[in-house]
Structure formats: C-alpha cells, structure tokens
Amino acid sequence: MPVPYKVGKDEKNKFLQNVEAQLHHFPFPPQIVVESTAACNLECIHCGHATMKRMRGNMKEELWKKIIDEIADTAPATEVWPTFYGEALLLGKKVTERIRYAANKGLTNLVLNTNGTMLSDELIREVLDCGLVRLIISLDGFKKETFEKIRKKANHEKVFRQTERLLEIKRNMKASHTRIEVQFSKMDENESEVDAFREYWLARGAYVKTREKLTWAGTKSASNLYQEMDRIACPWALRTCAIHWNGDLVACAVDYEGGFVAGNVMKDSIATIWNTKHKEFATLHLSHQFDKLPSLCRNCPDWQVGGGAALEKPEVSSSLDVENSAIL
Questions:
Q1: SS3 state of residue 323
Q2: pLDDT tens by residue, 268-302
Q3: DSSP H helices in 209-276
Q4: Distance CA 146, CA 159 (A)
Q5: How far apart are CA 38 and CA 310, in angstroms?
Q6: pTM, two decimal places
Q7: Please, which contacts does 59-64 make with residues 24 or more away whose CB atoms are closer than 8 Å?
Q8: N or C: lower Cβ tally within 10 Å for the chain?
C-alpha cells in the first residue's frame, strides 16, 4: 500500500500545535538561506520558478563574503544553505569555492540542495570536499515517466546514474562528513511510488527525506493542505532567514518573489534587519495577529508544512529510524 501523505485535520492540528510550542523569536536566525543564483535549468511542476516575475541574477562575491563573515562572527553553528530559488551548481566550482570559504571561516552547518543535473564526476569530488555537512538531491519521483513529468527538462537515467555515482565516489573518498540525502516531495502525481523510492535509495546508502508539497505562498496547488485549520505561527517565518541574490532579506524561504522585504544586507547586517523590521513581522505571527500580516502571509497556507520532514537512515533494519529533520 502507498504511504498516504494526506492526514486528517485533527491529526494535523495536533502536530502543528506541537510545532508552534517550540517557536519563539530567535536573536539570530537558526537557518539562513542564501541565493547564490536565481537561475534554474528545470521547470518542475510543483515550483513557481518558470513564472517568477522578479529579476534573476547571481550573487556577487563580496556580498557572499559579507554574509558569511557576519555569520562566522555571530553564530558559526547557524545552518546555512547557499541556495534558495535556483540551482546553485549551475555556478560550478564557484559555488563550491564559496562553501569552502564559509567552512574555512568556521561555519559548521553547511547544507546544499540540488536537482542533481549538474553532478559530473569532477563536480561531485568538489562538492564532497568543500565542507558540506549535508547534500540533498531533490528527485520527487521513482519511475521515469513520473520523474520526468514532475521535474521537467531533467533526464531520469542521467540524474539517477549520477546520484548513484555520487554515493560511490563518497564511499571511495571516505567523505563521511557529508551526508547524502535524496528528497521526495509527496504529491498526487507520485504518492504511489514513495515506498519503491525509499527502498531503492536506502539500499544504496542514501538517507531518504520525504516531505509534503507546499504552495510557494499560494502560487501552486497542494491538495494536502486544508483551508480550515487552527492556524499557528509560521515556522518558515520564525526560523528561516532568506536572502535573495541582490541582498534583499525577505519574509521566509517560501517568499521567492520577495513579497515582503525586511531590508537589504548590502546596507545593514543580518542581525539588524532580523531584530528590527523582520522581528515586527515575526511578532505578528507569534501573537496570532494574522490579519495584520502582509498579504503574502495572510493568504499563504504553507505554515502547515513548515514543521519538518521525515528523514530515514540507510541502515539494514526491519524498523527504520525516523527523525524530524531541518525545516527545509
């Protein structure tokens, strides 16, 4: 039987109340998502990138270093993602050099998400040797027809082959410091394949991360989200600091269009913006003054899926360990 991804309202309400109980205003963001590039080579059906209206570009080197230097001086254990609404590996070695700069500055929790299309053997070795703690390959399908329907412009054979090659090279390099995760966003189109996907990748030594579909602030449909729920403060808004390639610090890691801009880190520090205009925004969430939020948030249902994802370890066991992974 396929694993269902739609749960009853009562069950989801109970889970979300537990999520909210752990939320508060953090003096410095626990997770910082930095957009190395706003370009992407795919047109996935559950992503709004193909219709994104804001200007696309690459983050300048000096801005990246400014961001990393502040994190290193303030909270080097912060979880930092050098990707947001784009495919970072389109930048090739430039992005691994940036990750290495962050690692050399003392950052200890560096995470990269990729669609896997750019994983040549040479780049795989760079990725495994630059200081990443986690590398996540978003796949979202098991069968060829499902995968290529969801992840438009990607080639199933190539991406699966190179992901397996990544795991092989990691074993040969003994690069145990970099955890390899394959991600499966569950949706109507693929829910029947989640068991086969899980078994296939666990057997090959990858962690398997499954998560619910989201709407990207209402721009995509998601039948797993309910219209009538007991709303909670948004985990995305409280825990994630998202920075576009031009330095705009926006509402959260779902705000890909920049519907709410709290400030720009080219002009002010992350800490200053996070503890002023963004804090005012976060306080509205915590106090449940949802009607006073920017329209982006008032109409966004993605707070329902901001509580984490299931992560299964690649261990030979009849009962796999499942833990709640990072919010992204």
A1: strand
A2: 999 999 999 999 999 999 999 999 999 999 989 99
A3: 235-239, 270-274
A4: 14
A5: 27
A6: 0.92
A7: 59/34, 59/35, 59/245, 59/246, 61/98, 63/247, 63/265, 63/266, 64/34, 64/36, 64/98, 64/101
A8: N
